[in-house]
Protein backbone atom coordinates (compact mmCIF):
# COMPACT_ATOMS: atom_id res chain seq x y z
CA UNK A 1 0.00 0.00 0.00
CA UNK A 2 1.29 3.46 -0.87
CA UNK A 3 2.35 5.73 1.98
CA UNK A 4 1.13 8.76 0.03
CA UNK A 5 -1.74 10.35 1.99
CA UNK A 6 -4.88 11.61 0.30
CA UNK A 7 -4.02 14.71 -1.73
CA UNK A 8 -6.92 16.17 -3.72
CA UNK A 9 -4.61 18.40 -5.76
CA UNK A 10 -2.57 15.40 -6.97
CA UNK A 11 -5.76 13.46 -7.64
CA UNK A 12 -7.16 16.22 -9.82
CA UNK A 13 -3.86 16.40 -11.71
CA UNK A 14 -4.00 12.64 -12.31
CA UNK A 15 -7.53 12.92 -13.70
CA UNK A 16 -6.43 15.65 -16.11
CA UNK A 17 -3.44 13.61 -17.27
CA UNK A 18 -5.60 10.54 -17.91
CA UNK A 19 -8.14 12.54 -19.91
CA UNK A 20 -5.48 14.26 -22.01
CA UNK A 21 -3.76 10.95 -22.73
CA UNK A 22 -7.04 9.34 -23.78
CA UNK A 23 -7.99 12.16 -26.12
CA UNK A 24 -4.51 12.28 -27.66
CA UNK A 25 -4.56 8.51 -28.25
CA UNK A 26 -7.89 8.64 -30.09
CA UNK A 27 -10.52 5.88 -30.22
CA UNK A 28 -9.47 2.39 -29.09
CA UNK A 29 -8.08 0.23 -31.87
CA UNK A 30 -10.35 -2.23 -33.65
CA UNK A 31 -10.86 -5.57 -31.96
CA UNK A 32 -13.62 -7.90 -30.72
CA UNK A 33 -14.71 -5.50 -27.95
CA UNK A 34 -13.51 -2.24 -29.48
CA UNK A 35 -16.97 -0.72 -29.93
CA UNK A 36 -18.46 -1.56 -26.55
CA UNK A 37 -18.52 -0.07 -23.09
CA UNK A 38 -16.12 -2.44 -21.32
CA UNK A 39 -12.89 -1.51 -23.11
CA UNK A 40 -14.09 0.09 -26.32
CA UNK A 41 -15.19 3.36 -27.88
CA UNK A 42 -18.58 3.60 -26.16
CA UNK A 43 -17.09 3.31 -22.68
CA UNK A 44 -14.39 5.84 -23.49
CA UNK A 45 -16.91 8.30 -24.92
CA UNK A 46 -19.03 7.96 -21.79
CA UNK A 47 -16.10 8.47 -19.40
CA UNK A 48 -14.73 11.47 -21.27
CA UNK A 49 -18.18 13.05 -21.48
CA UNK A 50 -18.86 12.45 -17.79
CA UNK A 51 -15.52 13.98 -16.81
CA UNK A 52 -16.07 17.11 -18.89
CA UNK A 53 -13.96 16.33 -21.96
CA UNK A 54 -16.49 15.18 -24.62
CA UNK A 55 -15.27 13.77 -27.92
CA UNK A 56 -17.02 13.19 -31.23
CA UNK A 57 -15.98 9.61 -31.77
CA UNK A 58 -18.50 7.55 -33.79
CA UNK A 59 -20.30 4.79 -31.92
CA UNK A 60 -20.01 1.91 -34.36
CA UNK A 61 -21.81 -1.42 -34.34
CA UNK A 62 -20.90 -3.97 -31.71
CA UNK A 63 -20.01 -7.51 -32.69
CA UNK A 64 -22.54 -8.86 -30.15
CA UNK A 65 -25.72 -7.71 -28.38
CA UNK A 66 -24.57 -7.55 -24.75
CA UNK A 67 -24.22 -4.74 -22.24
CA UNK A 68 -20.46 -5.04 -21.83
CA UNK A 69 -19.37 -5.95 -25.33
CA UNK A 70 -22.08 -4.91 -27.74
CA UNK A 71 -25.20 -3.15 -28.87
CA UNK A 72 -27.10 -2.81 -25.59
CA UNK A 73 -24.25 -0.93 -23.92
CA UNK A 74 -23.48 1.16 -27.00
CA UNK A 75 -27.14 2.16 -27.35
CA UNK A 76 -27.19 3.13 -23.66
CA UNK A 77 -24.25 5.49 -24.10
CA UNK A 78 -25.78 6.91 -27.29
CA UNK A 79 -29.18 7.34 -25.64
CA UNK A 80 -30.64 5.54 -28.68
CA UNK A 81 -33.76 3.80 -27.44
CA UNK A 82 -34.68 2.33 -30.83
CA UNK A 83 -31.23 0.79 -31.20
CA UNK A 84 -31.51 -0.53 -27.65
CA UNK A 85 -34.88 -2.17 -28.25
CA UNK A 86 -33.56 -3.84 -31.39
CA UNK A 87 -30.77 -5.53 -29.40
CA UNK A 88 -32.48 -6.14 -26.07
CA UNK A 89 -34.32 -9.39 -26.80
CA UNK A 90 -31.20 -11.21 -27.96
CA UNK A 91 -29.35 -9.92 -24.89
CA UNK A 92 -32.09 -11.15 -22.55
CA UNK A 93 -32.07 -14.58 -24.18
CA UNK A 94 -28.27 -14.94 -24.14
CA UNK A 95 -27.33 -18.22 -22.42
CA UNK A 96 -24.70 -16.47 -20.31
CA UNK A 97 -27.67 -15.08 -18.31
CA UNK A 98 -25.73 -12.49 -16.31
CA UNK A 99 -24.76 -8.81 -16.31
CA UNK A 100 -22.03 -8.35 -18.92
CA UNK A 101 -23.63 -10.33 -21.75
CA UNK A 102 -27.13 -11.27 -20.65
CA UNK A 103 -30.47 -10.35 -19.12
CA UNK A 104 -29.24 -8.37 -16.11
CA UNK A 105 -27.32 -6.03 -18.40
CA UNK A 106 -30.41 -5.49 -20.53
CA UNK A 107 -32.39 -4.79 -17.35
CA UNK A 108 -29.91 -2.19 -16.08
CA UNK A 109 -29.87 -0.41 -19.44
CA UNK A 110 -33.68 -0.54 -19.70
CA UNK A 111 -34.02 1.06 -16.28
CA UNK A 112 -31.61 3.85 -17.15
CA UNK A 113 -33.31 4.50 -20.51
CA UNK A 114 -36.85 4.26 -19.14
CA UNK A 115 -37.77 1.26 -21.32
CA UNK A 116 -40.36 -0.39 -19.08
CA UNK A 117 -41.42 -3.15 -21.50
CA UNK A 118 -37.84 -4.36 -21.89
CA UNK A 119 -37.27 -4.13 -18.15
CA UNK A 120 -40.29 -6.31 -17.45
CA UNK A 121 -39.17 -8.88 -20.05
CA UNK A 122 -35.72 -9.08 -18.46
CA UNK A 123 -37.22 -9.36 -14.97
CA UNK A 124 -39.45 -12.21 -16.11
CA UNK A 125 -36.49 -14.06 -17.62
CA UNK A 126 -34.37 -13.65 -14.49
CA UNK A 127 -37.07 -14.86 -12.13
CA UNK A 128 -37.96 -17.82 -14.34
CA UNK A 129 -34.33 -19.00 -14.50
CA UNK A 130 -33.48 -18.48 -10.80
CA UNK A 131 -33.92 -21.99 -9.44
CA UNK A 132 -33.12 -24.00 -6.33
CA UNK A 133 -29.91 -26.02 -6.46
CA UNK A 134 -30.03 -28.94 -4.03
CA UNK A 135 -26.23 -29.25 -3.81
CA UNK A 136 -25.82 -25.60 -2.86
CA UNK A 137 -28.95 -25.56 -0.73
CA UNK A 138 -29.87 -22.22 -2.30
CA UNK A 139 -31.31 -20.61 -5.42
CA UNK A 140 -28.69 -19.90 -8.11
CA UNK A 141 -28.54 -19.04 -11.78
CA UNK A 142 -26.71 -21.23 -14.29
CA UNK A 143 -24.66 -19.72 -17.12
CA UNK A 144 -24.00 -21.58 -20.36
CA UNK A 145 -20.59 -20.28 -21.32
CA UNK A 146 -18.01 -21.53 -23.83
CA UNK A 147 -19.67 -24.94 -24.09
CA UNK A 148 -19.99 -25.60 -20.36
CA UNK A 149 -22.41 -24.89 -17.52
CA UNK A 150 -21.27 -22.72 -14.62
CA UNK A 151 -22.86 -21.13 -11.58
CA UNK A 152 -21.01 -17.85 -11.16
CA UNK A 153 -21.47 -15.96 -7.90
CA UNK A 154 -20.01 -12.51 -8.63
CA UNK A 155 -21.09 -9.18 -10.06
CA UNK A 156 -19.88 -9.42 -13.64
CA UNK A 157 -21.12 -12.87 -14.55
CA UNK A 158 -23.38 -14.34 -11.91
CA UNK A 159 -25.55 -14.32 -8.83
CA UNK A 160 -25.02 -10.89 -7.30
CA UNK A 161 -24.96 -9.14 -10.67
CA UNK A 162 -28.38 -10.55 -11.49
CA UNK A 163 -29.67 -9.65 -8.04
CA UNK A 164 -28.30 -6.13 -8.50
CA UNK A 165 -30.35 -5.83 -11.67
CA UNK A 166 -33.51 -6.98 -9.91
CA UNK A 167 -32.90 -4.72 -6.90
CA UNK A 168 -32.32 -1.69 -9.09
CA UNK A 169 -35.62 -2.29 -10.89
CA UNK A 170 -37.67 -2.83 -7.72
CA UNK A 171 -40.43 -0.49 -8.90
CA UNK A 172 -41.36 -2.97 -11.64
CA UNK A 173 -41.85 -5.83 -9.13
CA UNK A 174 -44.18 -6.64 -6.28
CA UNK A 175 -43.28 -6.33 -2.61
CA UNK A 176 -43.55 -10.12 -2.37
CA UNK A 177 -40.92 -10.43 -5.13
CA UNK A 178 -38.57 -8.12 -3.28
CA UNK A 179 -39.04 -9.96 0.01
CA UNK A 180 -38.34 -13.28 -1.71
CA UNK A 181 -35.29 -11.77 -3.42
CA UNK A 182 -33.79 -10.72 -0.08
CA UNK A 183 -34.44 -14.14 1.41
CA UNK A 184 -32.83 -15.92 -1.54
CA UNK A 185 -29.71 -13.76 -1.81
CA UNK A 186 -28.86 -13.84 1.90
CA UNK A 187 -29.36 -17.61 1.96
CA UNK A 188 -27.18 -18.10 -1.13
CA UNK A 189 -24.39 -15.85 0.13
CA UNK A 190 -24.30 -17.47 3.56
CA UNK A 191 -24.17 -20.97 2.09
CA UNK A 192 -21.42 -20.19 -0.42
CA UNK A 193 -19.27 -17.93 1.81
CA UNK A 194 -15.66 -18.63 2.70
CA UNK A 195 -15.02 -17.37 6.22
CA UNK A 196 -11.89 -16.64 8.22
CA UNK A 197 -12.47 -14.88 11.52
CA UNK A 198 -14.46 -11.73 10.80
CA UNK A 199 -13.64 -11.81 7.07
CA UNK A 200 -15.70 -13.28 4.24
CA UNK A 201 -15.21 -13.87 0.52
CA UNK A 202 -16.73 -15.91 -2.30
CA UNK A 203 -15.22 -18.04 -5.07
CA UNK A 204 -15.88 -17.11 -8.71
CA UNK A 205 -18.21 -20.12 -9.13
CA UNK A 206 -19.81 -22.55 -6.73
CA UNK A 207 -17.45 -25.27 -7.98
CA UNK A 208 -14.24 -23.23 -8.24
CA UNK A 209 -11.18 -24.79 -6.58
CA UNK A 210 -10.21 -23.20 -3.28
CA UNK A 211 -7.02 -21.77 -4.80
CA UNK A 212 -9.11 -19.95 -7.41
CA UNK A 213 -10.30 -17.32 -4.95
CA UNK A 214 -10.22 -13.70 -6.12
CA UNK A 215 -10.76 -10.31 -4.52
CA UNK A 216 -12.09 -8.22 -7.41
CA UNK A 217 -15.18 -6.36 -8.55
CA UNK A 218 -15.91 -9.03 -11.16
CA UNK A 219 -15.39 -12.00 -8.81
CA UNK A 220 -15.34 -11.86 -5.03
CA UNK A 221 -16.10 -9.65 -2.06
CA UNK A 222 -15.70 -6.20 -3.68
CA UNK A 223 -18.35 -7.00 -6.27
CA UNK A 224 -20.70 -8.44 -3.67
CA UNK A 225 -20.49 -5.18 -1.72
CA UNK A 226 -20.94 -3.03 -4.81
CA UNK A 227 -23.93 -5.07 -5.97
CA UNK A 228 -25.80 -5.24 -2.67
CA UNK A 229 -24.89 -2.09 -0.73
CA UNK A 230 -28.08 -0.48 -2.02
CA UNK A 231 -30.31 -3.30 -0.76
CA UNK A 232 -32.69 -2.75 2.15
CA UNK A 233 -31.06 -3.04 5.57
CA UNK A 234 -31.21 -6.55 6.96
CA UNK A 235 -29.03 -7.75 9.86
CA UNK A 236 -27.67 -10.89 8.17
CA UNK A 237 -26.91 -9.03 4.94
CA UNK A 238 -25.37 -6.11 6.83
CA UNK A 239 -23.03 -8.51 8.62
CA UNK A 240 -21.96 -10.11 5.34
CA UNK A 241 -21.29 -6.75 3.67
CA UNK A 242 -19.20 -5.47 6.58
CA UNK A 243 -17.18 -8.69 6.72
CA UNK A 244 -16.65 -8.48 2.95
CA UNK A 245 -15.50 -4.87 3.24
CA UNK A 246 -13.01 -5.80 5.95
CA UNK A 247 -11.70 -8.58 3.71
CA UNK A 248 -11.10 -6.12 0.85
CA UNK A 249 -9.17 -3.81 3.18
CA UNK A 250 -7.12 -6.61 4.70
CA UNK A 251 -6.27 -7.99 1.24
CA UNK A 252 -4.96 -4.59 0.16
CA UNK A 253 -4.71 -3.15 -3.36
CA UNK A 254 -4.63 -5.52 -6.31
CA UNK A 255 -1.15 -6.00 -7.69
CA UNK A 256 -0.46 -4.66 -11.14
CA UNK A 257 -3.88 -3.34 -12.13
CA UNK A 258 -5.52 0.00 -11.37
CA UNK A 259 -8.84 -0.43 -13.20
CA UNK A 260 -12.43 -1.05 -12.23
CA UNK A 261 -13.19 -4.64 -13.23
CA UNK A 262 -10.23 -6.43 -11.67
CA UNK A 263 -8.11 -3.64 -10.24
CA UNK A 264 -7.51 -1.42 -7.25
CA UNK A 265 -10.01 1.28 -8.30
CA UNK A 266 -12.86 -1.22 -8.50
CA UNK A 267 -12.02 -2.64 -5.09
CA UNK A 268 -11.87 0.85 -3.64
CA UNK A 269 -15.37 1.52 -4.92
CA UNK A 270 -16.66 -1.07 -2.45
CA UNK A 271 -15.52 1.29 0.32
CA UNK A 272 -17.48 4.17 -1.24
CA UNK A 273 -20.55 1.92 -1.16
CA UNK A 274 -20.01 1.09 2.52
CA UNK A 275 -19.38 4.75 3.33
CA UNK A 276 -22.86 5.56 2.07
CA UNK A 277 -24.55 2.51 3.59
CA UNK A 278 -23.02 2.75 7.07
CA UNK A 279 -22.31 6.50 7.36
CA UNK A 280 -18.96 5.48 8.84
CA UNK A 281 -16.29 7.78 7.38
CA UNK A 282 -13.55 5.22 7.85
CA UNK A 283 -14.72 3.64 4.59
CA UNK A 284 -14.22 6.89 2.68
CA UNK A 285 -10.70 7.02 4.10
CA UNK A 286 -10.10 3.48 2.86
CA UNK A 287 -11.40 4.40 -0.60
CA UNK A 288 -9.07 7.38 -0.80
CA UNK A 289 -6.05 5.33 0.30
CA UNK A 290 -6.78 2.83 -2.49
CA UNK A 291 -7.20 5.73 -4.93
CA UNK A 292 -3.75 7.11 -4.15
CA UNK A 293 -2.26 3.65 -4.62
CA UNK A 294 -4.10 3.16 -7.92
CA UNK A 295 -2.63 6.39 -9.30
CA UNK A 296 0.83 4.85 -8.89
CA UNK A 297 -0.33 1.71 -10.76
CA UNK A 298 -1.37 3.45 -13.97
CA UNK A 299 -0.27 1.63 -17.11
CA UNK A 300 -1.98 3.60 -19.87
CA UNK A 301 -4.41 0.73 -20.55
CA UNK A 302 -7.45 1.77 -22.55
CA UNK A 303 -11.10 1.46 -21.62
CA UNK A 304 -13.77 2.24 -19.07
CA UNK A 305 -13.87 -0.98 -17.04
CA UNK A 306 -10.42 -2.20 -18.05
CA UNK A 307 -8.22 0.89 -18.04
CA UNK A 308 -7.27 4.33 -16.84
CA UNK A 309 -10.53 6.08 -17.71
CA UNK A 310 -12.30 3.93 -15.13
CA UNK A 311 -9.62 4.94 -12.65
CA UNK A 312 -10.28 8.60 -13.48
CA UNK A 313 -13.98 8.13 -12.74
CA UNK A 314 -13.15 6.47 -9.43
CA UNK A 315 -10.82 9.34 -8.49
CA UNK A 316 -13.60 11.84 -9.15
CA UNK A 317 -15.95 9.67 -7.09
CA UNK A 318 -13.48 9.74 -4.19
CA UNK A 319 -13.30 13.53 -4.32
CA UNK A 320 -17.10 13.80 -4.29
CA UNK A 321 -17.73 10.82 -1.95
CA UNK A 322 -20.09 9.61 -4.69
CA UNK A 323 -20.77 5.88 -4.61
CA UNK A 324 -22.73 5.67 -7.90
CA UNK A 325 -21.05 3.20 -10.24
CA UNK A 326 -20.81 4.52 -13.84
CA UNK A 327 -23.31 3.07 -16.34
CA UNK A 328 -24.87 0.87 -13.66
CA UNK A 329 -26.14 3.21 -10.96
CA UNK A 330 -26.10 6.30 -13.10
CA UNK A 331 -26.08 7.18 -16.79
Describe this structure in words.
This protein has 331 residues and is mostly helical. It has helices at residues 8-25, 41-50, 71-78, 81-92, 103-113, 116-129, 159-168, 175-192, 221-228, 235-251, 264-278, 282-296, 308-320; strands spanning 131-133, 138-140, 143-145, 148-150, 194-196, 199-201. It contains 13 helices and six strands. The strands form three sheets. Strands 1-2 form a two-stranded antiparallel ribbon. A hairpin with a 2-residue loop joins strand 5 (194-196) and strand 6. The longest helix has 18 residues, at 8-25. The protein is globular and about 50 Å long. The model has no long low-confidence stretch (mean pLDDT 96).
Sheet-strand content, in percent, reads 5-15%
Structural class: mainly alpha
Major sheet: 2 strands, antiparallel
Shape: globular
Helical amount among residues, as a percent range? 40-55%
User: What is the radius of gyration computed over CA atoms, rounded to a whole number of angstroms?
Assistant: 19 Å
The beta-strand count equals 6
Q: Strands of the largest sheet, in order across it?
A: 1-2
How far the N terminus sits from the C terminus, by CA atoms, comes to 32 Å
Total of DSSP H or I helical runs spanning 4+ residues: 13
Low-pLDDT stretches are: none
Mean pLDDT: 96
Order of helices and strands: HHHHHHEEEEHHEEHHHHH
Amino acid sequence: MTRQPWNERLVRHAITEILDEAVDAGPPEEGPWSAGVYEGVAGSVYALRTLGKPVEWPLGAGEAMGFGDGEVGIALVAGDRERFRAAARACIDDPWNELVFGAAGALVAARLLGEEDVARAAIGHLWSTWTFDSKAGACLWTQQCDGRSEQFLGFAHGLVGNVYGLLSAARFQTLDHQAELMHRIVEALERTALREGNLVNWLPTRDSPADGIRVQWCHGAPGVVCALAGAPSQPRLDALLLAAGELVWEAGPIRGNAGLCHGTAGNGWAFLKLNRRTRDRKWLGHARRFAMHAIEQRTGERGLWSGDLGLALSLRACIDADDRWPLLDVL
